[in-house]
Design brief:
single chain, 147 residues, mainly beta, Deoxyuridine 5'-Triphosphate Nucleotidohydrolase, Chain A, 3-stranded antiparallel sheet, 1 helix
């Protein structure tokens, strides 16, 4: 059985590498900066990833910073995680990463600063109110230990 989905992609730059999995490392896919960007400490910028995509119906994209983005560039993704649904699918709907610079920094064409995965939309949920949950309590927030 083939579980492969197709995403139509439009590249807005011939300078960036084509999207691909990083072999054997993750099922997240890195996005690359489409043009050089210089930021001063305290700047906000939407960084263009140089692509637009048409996701399959019923799917959405989760866009997050790579684990090295803060260490290497001092950038924080301002919305913590981007959620892009399948209606953001036109030629001008560029994938962007909103960032805040914590120090003077530069990103260059092909730098990998964010990554994405696609997931199916959440199913319809019915909330059933109860006075008691049947699961065993773990002890509340922060209860898994300090080590």
């Amino acid at each position: 059985m083939n579980n492969t989905e197709t995403i139509r992609i439009k590249y807005h730059s011939d300078k960036i590498e084509k999207l691909r999995y990083i072999d054997g490392k993750s099922d997240w896919i890195d996005l690359r900066v489409a043009s050089d960007v210089v930021l001063k400490k305290g700047d906000f910028k939407l960084i263009d990833m140089g692509v637009s995509m048409q996701l399959p119906k019923g799917y959405e994209m989760l866009l997050v910073a790579r684990s090295s983005t803060f260490k290497n560039f001092g950038l924080i993704q301002t919305n913590a995680m981007g959620v892009i649904d399948e209606t953001y699918c036109g030629d001008d709907d560029h994938i962007m990463m909103p960032v805040y610079a914590t120090r003077d920094t530069e990103v260059h064409v092909n730098d990998r600063i964010c990554q994405f995965r696609i997931i199916k939309h959440q199913p319809a949920i019915n909330f059933e109110e109860t006075d008691r949950l049947s699961g065993e309590s773990r002890g509340g927030f922060g209860s898994t230990g300090v080590n």
